Amino acid sequence: MAGIIAVTGANGFVGRALCTEAVRRGMVVRGITRAPCVLPEGVENVVVGEVNGDTQWEQALTGCDVVIHLAARVHIMHDKSHDPLAEFRRINTAGTIRLALCAIQAGVRRLVNVSSIGVNGASTEGELQFTDQDVPDPHNPYSLSKWEAEQALQVIQSQGMLEVVTVRPPLIYGPGVGGNFLRLLGAVYRGIPLPLGLTRNFRDLLFVGNLVDFLLVCAAHPRANGSTYLVSDGTPVSTHTLLRGLAHALDVPSRLFSVPPYLLQWMGNLTGHTAEFQRLLSSLKVDNEKVRRELDWYPTYTLSRGLQATADWYLATFKE
Fold it and tell me: Quick check: is 229 catalytic?
């Protein structure tokens, strides 16, 4: 790939992995962040301040061929802001539109926008899978802001001044992961008994190494322009199977006990953790057929290999 590849949100979980891999492949990488920070070796850091509809991206994008957009206000489980939707729109929608317009001014060829599977909906039923052809059903302020950004980018792309590729990943895990997945790792490692032995759901996950590889394909592949892609490891897994896989990777016993899912959902409703329990109990499957057909892309890491890499990182970082 000729020219500079710019990565917004370069200091985040995915951003650091992406920058590291792009440098390893011999690419010239510019990491764009809100504040000065130490990025992986070989990555130039350019600071733009807060991300919103007024962000001055032009200088950071000068000389860049592609920008991969990761910077976002992510989903917050218990959002305490006065107007969460307005905050998500300010950063995720207006900030993305501003980035695209500045990219055009700077002569950037392509923007790869990392959206969310939440644009499709919260869950799938039975044998159904989410596809890029589904009628969008964003189910919270975060996914709505991402869908609104997608729609604006579709208009910009249709005008022919900027190539746009949209990627909707499911839950991303891997070395450096935080949030609920990190808490789950900690619970399994510490041997905390978990009442999830009867779960029969199936959820697609995405290892960060697979996402990074796919984003770099989207940055270069001529057929990707104008497309929306759903991507995963390709192995839907139930919650209890995931937990046993993590226990195996961590080399600890799997301490699961069985509680009927309807009782767990009731417990979630009672304790105000409905959404958390719903994610543990519901299914979310995605169809990878389009990425195979159009881009000839297959995940490099299997689910088991991705879980092992994540466990190895956890043990190296947090083991007492």
Answer: no
